[in-house]
């Protein structure tokens, strides 16, 4: 920490010349060679720590991080799309296990990726702490004293004046302070420095990175995310049992669920009716009423894509939609066993061709009077192309709805204790209804049409269609911190990259002939056209107060001017 | 919903304006092509001048001090203010160890004819820019939204902004006329791809793209891309010019082409500095772009960061540029190594735009190829 670097653009010879003047213009850690020490364990540990917190290793880790992130974008990731991962296992039988071992299906939580970023952040902390102390030290100290030979500095000017040196120094001090330099008198010169905000910005940026990482990690541990399909008219209350599927972070507990409930009043989707993008969705919105807590007042609102409803730290997103044909089923006696009930089907494509199952579990008796269960494979097209066309919907809205059913009877297997998808028939103990040719009995129904089961086994009527909307409820604590960190990061970065840290020295001494010689010099972290401009401006102001006596100054700059280059930026 | 509802929405898409837009884009391509030939003419006429400033600077110096630098040269600027003549002058020393090479005279090589063609080329570039801008504007009006809903629109807007950045820098009197030829060449390639492979008829957006974050996130992304592009060209030319200067300084004889073309470019140090300034200046904006994207993703998809391929590549690009900025503050990495990093970082940006949209599927893919 005691080591310091000088302005990066200068070479060693000049450094000695500039001495302390150029030092600590940045708090970047000292460069050390990668040669290991010949000391004991402590020496090694210290050496390792120095390496880890050096700029070179930080740079290497940064590059490793970006390299390491690449495979995750090219290889399917379990967290992003699990079905693609399964597909990959089927397509690449030898490669997949190797990938699995390397954690390539979950790169961003893999051991090696974590190792890289954890090392990077350890390095970052190990870098920030000493830099902060060093910077505080610089703030408590004073700008370094003027180098002996100001002519050696990147920007320099001089003239002679009749005023007393003390007078000039006094005025220079005032001027520099007015220009918001930190300035102090130092022997025969005034030393001043400005642009500390650059370092503040840089430190703030790096600290903000840590805050963002912690907030993100916190969010991952405590987040939850659940999905629920809700039919128009139906309600949902935020308890674990109500979800269709649910994921949560490792430290999440059930008490973290925000207590609220809502009812879906109406779902509305509109689509491009013509042109090359026919069928592309235009708007999706769900009108809901909701209440918070057990006795909360009911409010109504509309949830749209991009506009989630936020309740108590949880967000309710509209994520999907589909159709639920409403059917009535009668048994052999003509008794109604399913009364005007909607069965939600899952969309298969962009035009909402949907499939699913209709299951009749209780109350049905067949033509022989036996208790049985009924099952139908259901296929639904919101817009059917007409006879002879494919069994795929041609438009996502309900222009010409058609429900195709194939009928089974027997045991649905729902009581076997094995969890079963509501969208699929388990046909192990089911028998097909046969048509006159002895094949599986199927029928296509329009709204209002009825399918009569063979052998006087009852009927199914397609009464109409209800829409459903899929909601995702999520909460990720710490996102406020992540956002705050992000804002600080941007501001800090802007400060770090746009503000110049620079030093100015003004020396005024009586020359050999008794006339005062004024010298101004400036030093910045990089060669910038701004520094000479600023110095010229300062010199101009001082010069106006303390002009040249009469003759030309004798102390002209040594080397010969090549004027034109300086005009260029 | 009924068909009548949907038809009303469709009326929003204005065929007529869309056709005007297409015509304007094609016209701008024609004018860019003319500008391209004018730039070529500028370079060709410029080659007739035998300037050889770089060589002069490097070999004279080398001869004078037996190969070692005699210490940095000194230049003088005038102090600001009106009473310039009386005020003291500021002496500027370039960094120790840096080669002191004057900037080249530009493509025209100081020849009158070259300069004339150069001026014509710039006028044509500005004209083409205005036409293309009109094309983007009418496209936006025809769809009644921001003109970046798919890759075609993104491409035309991107090249417009890139040329816009160039024009603005010219107006600010920056020494970047040398960028003209590479810029117009890329713009023609970009537009060529846009009107052939990427063309998408004008239309509205899917609901996930309905958000004011679309305006913020994508517009800054486009601006960042345009500026990164300028930085990348400058970096690439820096590498060429630096090799050229190295060769001269070590007594080698560069080829005729290098002598003619590279000599007219700004000094390697100037190109390097320019590239750094440009990249550093947009880096905070790029950071903002990613964060704006994350906020939007939080609203649209229920999580602000999910390692979607597009997000991942934005992150990779960001880290790569951060690496570049670090490299410039790390001993042993300044100069050429840092420049390679800058080029890799720009490569990441390009891949994020073209590669991810075309080869990788993710949530962003509906941006439409
Ligand atoms: C999470 C990874 C990191 C990122 C994204 C990052 C990013 C940046 C950026 C964008 C800058 C501004 C560059 C400039 O001023 O030109 C910077 C500067 C700096 N970073 Fe980092 N950094 C990271 C990690 C680190 C680490 C681990 C260290 C410590 C070894 C470090 C030390 C520094 C220093 C000393 C500077 C100032 C350099 C100067 O004064 O020019 N950074 N960093």
Would you mind describing this structure in some detail?
The complex is a heterodimer of chains A (569) and B (369). Chain A is elongated, with a radius of gyration of 38 Å. Chain A has helices spanning 12-18, 41-52, 55-74, 82-91, 95-102, 111-140, 165-178, 197-222, 479-498, 530-545, 563-567, and strands at 155-161, 182-186, 189-194, 224-231, 235-237, 245-248, 260-271, 281-292, 299-304, 309-311, 314-330, 336-342, 346-347, 354-360, 373-381, 402-410, 430-432, 442-445, 450-452, 459-475, 502-510, 516-524. By secondary structure, chain A is of the alpha+beta class. Chain A is built from 11 helices and 22 strands. Chain B has 369 residues and is mostly helical. Chain B has one domain. In chain B, 66% of the residues lie in helices and 2% in strands. A two-stranded antiparallel ribbon of chain B has the order 1-2. In chain B, helix 7 (212-249) packs antiparallel against helix 11. The complex binds protoporphyrin IX containing FE. Protoporphyrin IX containing FE (HEM) sits between chains A (26, 28-29, 53, 55, 58, 62, 120, 123-124, 127, 202, 206, 209, 493, 496-497) and B (280, 322, 325-326, 329). Protoporphyrin IX containing FE sits between chains A (26, 28-29, 53, 55, 58, 62, 120, 123-124, 127, 202, 206, 209, 493, 496-497) and B (280, 322, 325-326, 329). Chain B: It comes from Streptomyces griseoviridis.
Helix and strand string of chain B, N-terminal first?
HHHEEHHHHHHHH
Oligomerization: heterodimer
Q: What is the total domain count of chain B?
A: 1
Q: Report the structural category of chain A.
A: alpha+beta
Number of helices, where a helix is a run of at least 4 consecutive DSSP H or I residues of chain B: 11
Estimated radius of gyration of chain B: 24 Å
Strand content of chain B: under 5%
**Strand fraction of chain A:** 25-35%
Can you give the mean pLDDT of chain B? 80
Low-confidence runs of at least 5 consecutive residues of chain A: 1-17, 552-569
| Sequence of strands across the biggest β-sheet of chain B | 1-2
* Major sheet summary line of chain B: 2 strands, antiparallel
Proportion of helical residues of chain B: 55-70%
Instruction: Please provide the count of β strands of chain A.
Output: 22
Task: Enumerate the spans of chain B where pLDDT stays under 50 for 5 or more consecutive residues.
Answer: 1-12, 61-85, 365-369
Cα(first) to Cα(last) distance of chain A is: 36 Å
Specify Rg of chain A, calculated over alpha carbons: 38 Å
Transmembrane segments (chain B): 24-45, 120-142, 154-172, 179-200, 212-240, 274-297, 312-331, 338-356
InterPro entries (chain B): Cyt_c_assembly, Cyt_c_biogenesis_CcsA, Cyt_c_biogenesis_CcsA/CcmC
Main location (chain B): membrane
Protein name (chain B): C-type cytochrome biogenesis protein CcsB
């Amino acid at each position: 920490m005691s080591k310091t670097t000088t302005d990066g653009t200068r070479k060693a010879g000049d450094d000695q010349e500039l001495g302390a003047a150029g030092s600590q213009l940045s708090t970047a850690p000292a460069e050390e060679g990668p040669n290991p020490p010949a000391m004991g364990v402590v020496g090694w540990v210290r050496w390792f720590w120095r390496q880890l917190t050096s700029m070179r290793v930080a740079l290497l880790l940064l590059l490793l991080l970006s390299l390491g992130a690449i495979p995750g974008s090219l290889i399917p990731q379990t967290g992003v799309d699990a079905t693609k991962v399964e597909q990959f296992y089927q397509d690449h039988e030898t490669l997949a296990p190797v990938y699995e071992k390397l954690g390539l299906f979950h790169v961003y939580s893999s051991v090696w990726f974590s190792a890289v970023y954890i090392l990077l952040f350890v390095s970052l902390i190990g870098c920030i702490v000493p830099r902060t102390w060093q910077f505080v030290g610089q703030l408590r100290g004073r700008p370094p004293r003027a180098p002996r030979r100001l002519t050696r500095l990147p920007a320099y000017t001089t003239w002679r004046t009749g005023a007393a040196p003390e007078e000039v120094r006094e005025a220079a001090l005032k001027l520099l302070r007015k220009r918001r330099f930190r300035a102090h008198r130092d022997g025969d010169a005034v030393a001043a420095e400005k642009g500390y905000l650059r370092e503040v910005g840089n430190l703030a940026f790096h600290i903000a990175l840590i805050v963002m990482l912690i907030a993100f990690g916190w969010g991952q541990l405590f987040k939850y995310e659940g999905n629920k399909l809700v039919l128009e008219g139906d309600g949902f209350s935020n308890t674990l049992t109500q979800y269709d599927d649910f994921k949560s972070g490792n430290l999440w507990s059930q008490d973290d669920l925000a207590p609220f409930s809502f009812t879906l009043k109406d779902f509305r989707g509109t689509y491009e009716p013509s042109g090359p993008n026919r069928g592309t969705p235009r708007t999706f919105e769900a009108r809901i009423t909701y209440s918070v807590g057990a006795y909360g007042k009911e409010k109504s609102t509309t949830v749209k894509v991009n506009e989630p409803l936020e309740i108590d730290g949880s967000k309710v997103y509209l994520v999907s939609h589909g159709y639920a044909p409403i059917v009535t089923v009668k048994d052999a006696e003509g008794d109604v066993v399913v009364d005007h009930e909607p069965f939600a089907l899952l969309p298969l494509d962009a035009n909402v061709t949907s499939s699913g199952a209709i299951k009749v579990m209780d109350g049905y008796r067949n033509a022989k009077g036996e208790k049985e269960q009924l099952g139908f494979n259901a296929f639904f097209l919101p817009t059917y192309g007409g006879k002879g066309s494919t069994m795929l919907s041609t438009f996502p809205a309900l222009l010409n709805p058609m429900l195709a059913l194939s009928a089974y009877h027997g045991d649905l297997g729902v009581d076997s204790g094995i969890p079963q998808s509501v969208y699929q028939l388990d046909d192990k103990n089911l028998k097909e209804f046969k048509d006159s040719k002895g094949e599986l009995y199927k029928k296509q129904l329009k709204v209002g049409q009825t399918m009569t089961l063979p052998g006087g086994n009852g009927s199914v009527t397609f009464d109409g269609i209800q829409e459903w909307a899929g909601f995702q409820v999520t909460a990720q604590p710490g996102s406020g911190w992540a956002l705050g960190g992000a804002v600080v990061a941007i501001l800090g970065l802007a400060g770090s990259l746009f503000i110049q840290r620079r030093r100015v020295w003004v020396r005024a001494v009586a020359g050999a002939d008794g006339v005062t010689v004024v010298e101004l010099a400036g030093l910045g972290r990089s060669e910038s056209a701004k520094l000479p401009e600023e110095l010229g401006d300062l010199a101009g102001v001082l010069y106006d107060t303390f002009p040249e006596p009469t003759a030309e100054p004798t102390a002209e700059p040594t080397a010969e001017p090549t004027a034109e280059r300086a005009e260029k930026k | 919903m009924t068909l009548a509802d949907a038809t009303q929405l469709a009326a929003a898409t204005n065929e007529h304006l869309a056709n005007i837009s297409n015509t304007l884009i094609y016209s701008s391509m024609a004018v860019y092509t003319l500008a391209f030939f004018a730039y070529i003419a500028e370079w060709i006429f410029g080659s007739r001048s035998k300037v050889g400033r770089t060589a002069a600077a490097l070999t004279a110096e080398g001869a004078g001090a037996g190969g070692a630098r005699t210490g940095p040269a000194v230049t003088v600027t005038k102090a600001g203010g009106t009473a310039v003549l009386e005020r003291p002058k500021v002496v500027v020393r370039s960094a120790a160890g840096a080669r002191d090479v004057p900037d080249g005279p530009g493509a025209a090589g100081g020849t009158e004819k070259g300069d004339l063609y150069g001026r014509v080329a710039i006028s044509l570039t500005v004209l083409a820019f205005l036409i293309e801008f009109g094309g983007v504007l009418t496209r936006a009006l025809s769809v009644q939204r921001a003109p970046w809903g798919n890759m075609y629109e993104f491409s035309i807007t991107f090249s417009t902004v890139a040329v816009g950045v160039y024009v603005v820098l010219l107006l600010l009197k920056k020494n970047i006329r040398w960028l003209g030829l590479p810029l117009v060449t890329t713009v023609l390639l970009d537009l060529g791809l846009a009107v052939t492979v990427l063309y998408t008829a004008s239309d509205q957006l899917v609901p996930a793209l309905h958000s004011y974050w679309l305006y913020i996130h994508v517009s800054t992304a486009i601006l960042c891309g345009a500026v990164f592009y300028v930085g990348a060209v400058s970096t690439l030319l820096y590498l060429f010019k630096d090799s050229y200067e190295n060769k001269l300084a070590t007594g080698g004889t560069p080829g005729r082409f290098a002598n003619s073309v590279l000599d007219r470019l700004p000094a390697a140090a100037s190109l390097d500095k320019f590239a750094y300034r440009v990249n550093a200046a947009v880096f905070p904006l790029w950071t903002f772009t990613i964060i704006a994207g994350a906020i939007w993703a939080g609203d649209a998809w229920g999580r602000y960061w999910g390692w979607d391929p597009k997000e991942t590549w934005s992150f990779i690009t960001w880290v790569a540029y951060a690496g570049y900025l670090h490299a410039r503050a790390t001993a042993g990495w300044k100069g050429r190594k840092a420049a390679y990093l800058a080029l890799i970082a720009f490569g990441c940006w390009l891949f994020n735009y073209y590669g991810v949209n075309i080869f990788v599927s993710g949530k962003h893919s509906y941006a439409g190829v």
